[in-house]
Design brief:
single chain, mainly alpha, 434 residues
Length: 434
């Protein structure tokens, strides 16, 4: 009998050692990049550009450097572990059996919470583009489209769609930047580690730290190893293309973040009371004409839809993998690809029914915000600690145990994630008290 923990399909061959070979092979980095860039990122970066101009732009590459270190370490496990685990979920569970249950419960709860936030963004974007229906019904349309794409668990379909969406988003924001007119000198100065005095050191410093912590404190960082598994990159021969792939995805995130920040800095700087998608679209329309809102809403739709599709795809399979860790007999019943287990399809449904939170008159997001902050950051801190332990064990990683440089990098990530955990719990307590 084959090992149920192993993927059904053989690992794919690494690309030829050429630039074009690597470029055409890229995929997991693109999928995870667009899963990272969501509704909140576009709105937060626009508003940050509006509030501070270009002065805090340096926060974006700084946060992405730490994110690359963290996610690259996660990507190392399925390629090098001597236990032949195909997923990071099984690797983390080796640190302690309790991690299997912790991941199972956390992933199930997080799936619904994340979908509640992001599906509403899909509805807002579609309403802004087409009108005719309330945003709730547009969110339902978006949910149905994600259901159709992800139900079978076919990774290559998801990857192809994401590549098309990436091209559309890049072209959209390039056109937006051209129409707005970017002050390139100020944009370059924005990478000079300035804390704008006009906003007060405390305020701008808090914004900077919050942006970094939000990047590292995201559970979406755990998606990348799952996309590697789905791609078939599961051997040491894939390490180089995996690193280039992740670097490309990181550059994609940086470009999209800088583009929307720059548009916000040019269009919103000095304006008061701008805080949501409608305000930003309206301001862009005033600046560049009727096409302005369509530029923003098209970018918002790409960001929101890919976050929903990529996240629910990865989380559904990670829930199945966690369940198979704590219930090995179930893994024997459904060997091979996680999508064979009916639980995967139920997770798709469980996530997408969160569209009900977008109904008019539905309870507010306060409870979800509290649960999200309490759950995600402390959980990720435990994950980072478990990852450091696992990557330094010779019985798991063999000769590919972490070097001291890799441990220093992960140690810094752990400090940032610990700070994110404190900040998240503090915000939750403040929300409850308020």
């Amino acid at each position: 009998m084959s090992d149920p923990a192993r993927p059904e399909a053989p690992a794919s061959a690494p690309p030829a050692a050429s630039f074009l070979g690597y470029l055409t092979a890229f995929g997991p980095g693109i999928v995870v990049a667009l899963s990272w860039v969501g509704t909140g990122d576009l709105i937060d970066n626009s508003v940050a550009g509006g509030n501070y101009g270009y002065a805090l732009l340096w926060v974006l590459p700084l946060s992405l450097v730490f994110r690359y270190v963290f996610v690259n370490a996660l990507g190392k496990y399925p390629l090098y572990n001597v236990q032949r685990d195909p997923s990071i979920v099984r690797g983390i569970a080796r640190a302690h059996p309790a991690f299997g249950w912790l991941m199972l419960v956390s992933f199930v709860i997080y799936t619904h919470i994340l979908m509640a936030f992001t599906l509403s963004g899909v509805g807002v974007a579609l309403e802004g583009l087409f009108g005719g229906l309330p945003s709730f019904w547009w969110a339902v349309v978006g949910a149905l489209s994600v259901f159709a794409v992800t139900l079978k668990g076919a990774y290559l379909l998801v990857e192809r769609i994401f590549k098309v969406i990436l091209v559309v988003m890049v072209l959209t924001f390039v056109v937006g930047m051209i129409m707005v007119g970017i002050n390139w000198g100020e944009l370059v100065k924005g990478f000079a580690f300035e804390l704008p005095a006009q906003q007060g050191l405390f305020d701008s410093g808090l914004v900077a730290s919050s942006l970094v912590l939000a990047t590292l404190g995201s559970m979406a960082n755990l998606f990348y190893p799952e996309f590697l598994r789905e791609k078939g990159w599961t051997t040491p021969a894939h390490r180089k293309v995996q690193q280039y792939d992740l670097l490309f995805g990181t550059v994609v995130v940086l470009f999209l973040g800088v583009a929307i920040w720059a548009i916000g800095a040019e269009v919103l700087f000095g304006k008061q009371g701008v805080s949501d998608a409608g305000d930003i679209a309206g301001a862009l329309g005033t600046a560049v004409g009727p096409v302005g809102p369509y530029i923003f809403y098209l970018g918002l739709l790409g960001a929101a839809w890919t976050t929903v599709a990529g996240s629910i795809f990865a989380l559904g399979k990670m829930v199945v993998e966690s369940l198979h860790v704590v219930r090995p007999h179930r893994a024997e019943r459904y060997p091979g690809a996680p999508a064979k287990d009916p639980i995967y399809r139920w997770m798709i449904v469980w996530g997408l029914v969160a569209v009900l939170w977008s109904l008019p008159g539905a309870p507010g997001f306060i409870a979800l915000v509290v649960v999200s902050h309490v759950l995600t950051s402390p959980f990720l801190l435990l994950i980072v600690i478990a990852l450091i332990v696992v990557l330094n064990r010779a019985d798991i990683m063999g000769v590919h145990r972490n070097s001291w440089k890799e441990n220093v990098g992960l140690g810094l990530v752990a400090l940032f994630v610990a700070a994110a955990a404190v900040q998240g719990i503090t915000k939750a307590i403040t929300t409850i008290a308020g």
